[in-house]
Amino acid sequence: MAEVTLRDVRKVYAGGVEAVKGVSFSIPDGGFCVLVGPSGCGKSTLLRMVAGLETISSGDVAIGGRVVNQIEPADRDIAMVFQNYALYPHMSVYDNIAYGLRNRGTPKAEIEARVAEAARILAIEPFLQRKPRALSGGQRQRVAMGRAIVRKPQVFLFDEPLSNLDAKLRVQMRVEIKKLQRALGVTSIYVTHDQVEAMTLSDKLVVMNAGEVEQIGTPTQIYRRPESRFVATFIGSPPMNLLPGVVEADGRVALDGVTLASDDMRAGLAPGTRVEVGVRPEEAEIAPQGAPGTPFAIDFIEELGATELLHGFVAGAPFILQVATGAVPAGLKALTLSIPARCVHVFDAQTGKRLGRVESENARAA
């Protein structure tokens, strides 16, 4: 196990295309860090630079205090699990798991012991003599993880390992990966574009966009205090509602015919400043009948079983409200919302950056 540190890491391709733009953060020994962001944001490129599969244009990557920029992938003491499993189809499960150890000249008795231990941990003991074609997708992914486990590396790297699995199996496998990482205590970096995977797996979450880090923190920090419009709408399902507004003299925010208070307002914001107001769908509440509040016009209802998503409009802007199923009578077209000041986020309309008065969690978490 080892700490992993990235210092101003950049990747520039031919033609001046900058895929990764000065990324810096560290992962403590035994930590589980998830890189999340949309396709093309640079997260897989960053992982491949840690692995040594991509050259680093500038900056440093250190594993266990040792800068590995010029060290070959095989000598970095890492193990990588890929999206496509990368199993040898002509080999048995046992031979796939043992392959790397044999190449390193590991004694036969030790290979047998390590493979047996990995098979027990991953519950694939009955499949050791099968070929990969005789396994399900989840079983193949376990074999790929077994091949990584037997290496006993300092760092595990996961490159979207669950993207080829169906929805039910993805849930099961992400729970298994988290339990496995905790049991082994190996520092891990995991890449995904799925924000649910990112939130459930990570100790430390790095949100990336267009080659840059938008925010670093725990899943709870990032969910509760997104530092930008991008993070607010990327993390959370359904995403945060955003409404155009203008700062008023008393620190409140005026929407189209509606005024909201926000605990997020900081001193010094000039009246008339254009902002965007964010409210998560589950944090707005239905006000008691006759109570003052924010008008909400219902357009249609999306049924999700235990909950419902009410799609409609607040102050002329699209708005989604998440409520328990049956909380709203059938056929109702309008209601009044109570939106607590603690749940109203404020972002700069031009830059998209948070205009909160509390010190950035990004700075503290990094």
UniProtKB/TrEMBL annotation:
Q: Which residues form the ABC transporter domain?
A: 4-235
Return one GO MF term.
Answer: ABC-type transporter activity
Q: Does the keyword ATP-binding apply?
A: yes
One Pfam annotation reads ABC_tran
For this UniProt record, the keywords arranged alphabetically read as follows:
ATP-binding, Cell inner membrane, Cell membrane, Membrane, Nucleotide-binding, Sugar transport, Translocase, Transport
Its membrane topology is listed as: Peripheral membrane protein
Where is it predominantly found? membrane
Q: What is this protein called?
A: Sn-glycerol-3-phosphate import ATP-binding protein UgpC
Record has Translocase as a keyword:
yes
What family is this protein classified in?
Answer: Belongs to the ABC transporter superfamily.
GO biological process terms, alphabetically, are: carbohydrate transport; glycerol-3-phosphate transmembrane transport; glycerophosphodiester transmembrane transport
